[in-house]
Structure formats: structure tokens, C-alpha cells
Design goal:
Layout: E1 2-8, H1 13-16, H2 30-45, E2 52-55, H3 59-71, E3 79-81, H4 98-105, H5 107-115, H6 152-173, E4 176-181, H7 183-194, H8 198-201, E5 212-216, E6 222-227
Parallel strand pairs: 1-4, 2-3, 2-4
Antiparallel strand pairs: 1-5, 5-6
Helix pairs in contact: 2-3, 4-5, 6-7
């Protein structure tokens, strides 16, 4: 049997202040760091020692992974950072308070932007200071790869190459693989693994800092799915 551990980053400063975050690179809150430490303890207590790790280019996921690995005394593990695992890009909503955005556009419209499968929020423009092309860590990406906004559907399409080309080969080599990423990039992996429909995945919630254990057979078919500590 093989195990894929999916870990959403701990609470971030913008989770705490109820802002749309997306690709904005924000720090963990104190609670988020504690969630990350506890996640590492839960994985250790379960006796499932990761042997290979993946994370995104965003520091709230990177720091969550580092803290969890420290709690397991496994900071020496190999880690692959891949921008394909970044959070969904929320376009022109990034940085806005969710409650204030709902007051401006209406609860129904904001709900559609947040929870529909294939409707994206309003786009950024390439000259916006929030455009990821202005950041050094994305300098190697082409204009077609740099998002101005994303729906859940396009986020899943972005994550798929990482799953097929990097995570699957790692699972073929190692029994236990840990992915520390974000709510929507992890939902993408869950959708692929559990063969969920668009209608099913929009209702899927992944809590911060709670390790999700996916048990797989040698053909990488799902045999079990549960959260550690819940």
C-alpha cells in the first residue's frame, strides 16, 4: 500500500483578515504555524513517515511543510517546489476583503466567483502590481502560463501536469508522499484521485492544517480517504 498525504497550509494572515489571497505571498498566522506543527505531530503519530515532498511557490505552503517536517524530525527529506501547485488565482479580487466585496457586488455574485466550477473572477491586467509576471520567482513562465484570473476548472487543468509528471512517478518510487499546498490545488488532486464530478468538487472543503491521508494500492487506485486527528 502507498500513502499520499495532502496538507493544506495553516491559517495565513489573510485567512485571518478574511481577504482573497490567491497567488499573493502572505505569511502564516500564529495559529497557522501551530496548525502546521500539529499536522506534523499527527503524521508522526500515525506512523506514516513521508519519504518525498511537494509544495508550491508560495511561502504559506512552504513554511507549513517546513514546520511539519521539523515536528517529524524529517527536515532532510527531498522537496520539490512547483508553481503548478499554487493556489487558484483570484484575479482582481486578490487582496480584497470578502465581506466588503460581497457588499459591493452582492452575495450571489461573490458566491458564484468563489464556488462555481467554471466561472472566474474579474481579471487583472498585466500592468497591475498584483500581476505575477512582476515577481522574480515566475520569471521562467511564459505569458500563456501566467494567470490573470482562474476558475476552479482552469486551476485543475494547471495542477494536472504536476500530478501526472511529478507526483505519480514519486508515488511509484516511494510508499509515502506528502503534498503541502492550498485549498484549491488540493481539491484538484482530490477530484482526480476520487474521480469526482464538477458538481461534487464544488462542495468539497479542505480545512487548514489537517493532514488528509489517501491510501492507494500499487495501481494508485484509492483504497481509503480520511483526515488524521478528526
Amino acid at each position: 500500500m502507498k500513502h499520499l498525504i495532502l496538507l493544506r497550509h495553516g491559517q495565513s494572515e489573510w485567512n485571518l483578515s478574511n481577504r482573497f489571497t490567491g497567488w499573493t505571498d502572505v505569511e502564516l498566522s500564529d495559529k497557522g504555524r501551530e496548525e502546521a506543527r500539529r499536522a506534523g505531530e499527527l503524521i508522526l503519530e500515525a506512523g506514516i513517515e513521508p519519504r518525498y515532498c511537494f509544495t508550491s511557490y508560495l511561502k504559506r505552503a512552504i513554511h507549513t511543510l517546513n514546520i511539519a517536517l521539523s515536528a517529524m524530525d524529517r527536515e532532510w527529506l527531498p522537496v520539490v517546489k512547483d508553481w503548478h501547485l499554487n493556489e487558484r488565482h483570484y484575479g482582481a479580487l486578490q487582496g480584497l476583503n470578502k465581506a466588503e466585496t460581497a457588499e459591493k457586488y452582492g452575495d450571489e455574485q461573490v458566491h458564484i466567483w468563489r464556488r462555481s466550477y467554471d466561472v472566474a473572477p474579474p481579471s487583472l491586467t498585466a500592468d497591475d502590481e498584483r500581476f505575477p509576471g512582476k515577481e522574480a520567482k515566475y520569471a521562467m513562465l511564459s505569458a500563456d502560463e501566467l494567470p490573470l484570473t482562474e476558475s476552479l476548472k482552469t486551476t485543475i487543468e494547471r495542477v494536472r501536469p504536476c500530478w501526472e509528471e511529478l507526483i505519480v512517478p514519486a508515488l511509484q518510487l516511494y510508499d509515502n508522499v506528502l503534498v503541502a499546498a492550498h485549498g484549491n490545488s488540493l481539491r484538484a488532486l482530490v477530484m482526480m484521485l476520487l474521480k469526482m464530478t464538477p458538481e461534487e468538487i464544488v462542495g468539497e472543503e479542505i480545512p487548514t492544517g489537517s493532514p488528509r491521508l489517501i491510501t492507494l494500492n500499487d495501481r494508485l487506485e484509492v483504497e481509503g480517504d480520511s483526515y488524521l486527528g478528526l
